[in-house]
Amino acid sequence: MGRLTLQDLDARQGVQIQTFDKPWIKVGMSTCGLAAGADAVFNALVETIQSHSLDWRVTRTGCAGMCSMEPLVEFRVPGESPVMYGEMTPELARELVTQYADKHSLPDDHRVPGLAELAQAAGDPPRTGPRQYRIVMRNCGVIDPENIDEYIDRGGYQALKKVLSSMTPEQVIEELKTSGLRGRGGAGFPVWSKWKMTRASIGDEHFIICNGDEGDPGAYMDRSVLEGDPHAVVEGMIIGGYVIGAQTGFFYIRAEYPLAIERIEKAIKQARAAGLLGSNILGANFSFNIEVRLGAGAFVCGEETALIASVEGKRGTPSPRPPYPSVRGLWKQPTMINNVETLANITQVLLHGGRWFAGIGSGKSTGTKVFAVTGKVKYSGLVEIPMGMTLREVVEEICGGTASGGPIKAVQTGGPSGGLIPADKLDTPITYEHLQQLGSIMGSGGMIVMDETDSVVELSRFYLGFCVDESCGKCAPCRIGGTQILRLLNNIADGKGKEEDLVTIRRMAHAMQKASLCGLGQTAPNPILSALRYYEHEFRERLVPAHK
Amino acid sequence: MNESATKDDVVLIAKRWKNKRGSLIMALHGLQNRFGYVPRDAAMELAEQMDVPLARIYEVITFYNYFKLKSPGKHVVSVCMGTACYLKGAPKLLKHASESLNISPGETSADGEFHLQMVRCVGCCGLAPVVTENETLLAKVTVDSLEAHLCKCKNKEKEKA
Ligand SMILES: Cc1cc2nc3c(=O)[nH]c(=O)nc-3n(C[C@H](O)[C@H](O)[C@H](O)COP(=O)(O)O)c2cc1C
Ligand code: SF4
Ligand code: FES
Questions:
Q1: Which CATH number is A380's domain given?
Q2: Nearest by CB to B121, which of A218, A314, A459?
Q3: Tell me: the pLDDT tens digits for A165-185?
Q4: Is A354 helix (H, G, I), strand (E, B) or coil?
Q5: Which atom of ligand 1 is nearest the CA belonging to A519?
Q6: Quick check: pTM over 0.80?
């Protein structure tokens, strides 16, 4: 495709679905779908369609979020509501095509709830029913992520067009302020404020970095968005670049996500070919380019100062803040770092307005949050909900409770920096503030469900072991404190701990929180402290009895 | 390994990244993609081509878990030990793989066929527990399905032999 003009963008919007009058089959082909065998299903569909000489369309799409039911296949016939099939096999795929071709009917087996039953998406006419609301995942499982036309068809690059043709950077910042959008990478810092500060900082050049390091093991929404709707993140980054006055942006993506890297690279290439990256974007006096940099298996590189060192090609050791990256970041220049999910929200805020966004969610936690609900849950997968919904609604009503049908013991949010929320607190609304009050954090959106068979002591040991492994060793409180606490914890887990060990653990944990240089060490004690807060008895049960 | 071929590949990789700011890690990814690890002679060649001190290259390689200094073997078996997989029984899988292959995590078998390692989340947590063998991703793995896959790899090698 050649360079797009403003008019081209409009002409290409909303034509595909209306004009295609044959059956259209979509296969979920992100990492999870492929792992479950989507490739073979896709091939079986294509072969069967060819052998019947049908001119149907078969395309790939991203992750719809129902990961435990992959491979997912959606069958669309014009004028009818689409039908979704889960746990598909090549045999079932062949049957699907043959039956519809022969009898114009669809098999009943393996049907699962469709996207429309599951979630309402930004831009849909309002209705009641589904509990999920998709802003970030609105295109995931809907479009072919490797096809820029499908993105544009769904209103893609309209936000960029709006910004470049009718908004000043200040107006964008104002809109973000109205929206109340906060960073989704963990800390929940107001997005407008970071954008404003970076814009105001003086430097030779400005940079924007998308943090796609997704270090919390058990969280994978960033991967899904990068794989399922890469252009939305690219578009968000271009807008960010325009607002802060950057000419270069970087995607920092962990090397463990090869498909996400491939799709982002493809998206960048397509955007460049369409004139959406490069010089004089959409005819405006604005030039911007994006490069990709890969992580190399270090959790600490998700921390922003370490990330900057890593993008510079160095060891990823954190440095003290201030100076904050917004003042002095990449190559000592003003740098804005935003998380993948944060950037994926930008286009929708600007298209529908800050006030619209602020109307979703609860209090100071506006908009939606995507959670990766995993562990002992019945339907594990990605769930995007308006903030303010309770943990119980997510874990029990959307995700079906535990797989065993037994009671939930606890839910862990925030990964290695977060904490446990016991079952009797599940009616808490999910907001930044409420989770913090319980001693946990929103974090990046990992939500691990534990049932009665899981041990809190073991999970604490797991998380702390993770942080000790991943500590960069630069500062003593984290390096030594972490190892010491882990040693005591191992003792307790092995039945050799003493009463005073619990006191020592708490004391060292508080010291580590206060004195560590970066967020890794400051938050590493959170899981053990929250475990002790709610489940001290489980630790005590394992202590050496005081009197023998 | 053919020496001049190695050199040509390194030259190509260096050329691609040399003039890009902060691209040393990307060049190292290039080497590891090409050789499966970062061979010492390749690192030395890269140092020369990119005009970076060798010490700085090793400083970077040793910081990042992802880079390997030794050839990992033909089949790299990675057991995910992320939280979701951990809760769903990954430790059992790791133990089994270790026994079946007769190597500890982080080791390569004497015949160079297998390398066993732990990874922290491959982003497929919804299908936990997950094990990867080279590019193949196994989902909802059980001890039996893992053993079946390992057997398949072992047999493939035997057939070739
Ligand atoms: C140890 C550590 C790991 C982190 N890992 C990530 C990560 O994987 N992804 C991410 O977006 N933010 C991560 N963060 C938070 C980032 O430092 C930063 O706050 C965030 O990327 C800013 O983006 P946001 O304002 O859009 O949330 C991490 C922080 C710490 C201390
Ligand atoms: S807190 Fe830990 S990870 Fe952070 S700088 Fe100190 S040692 Fe490194
Ligand atoms: S925890 Fe194993 S894939 Fe994420």
A1: 3.10.20.600
A2: A218
A3: 999 999 999 999 999 999 999
A4: helix
A5: 31
A6: yes
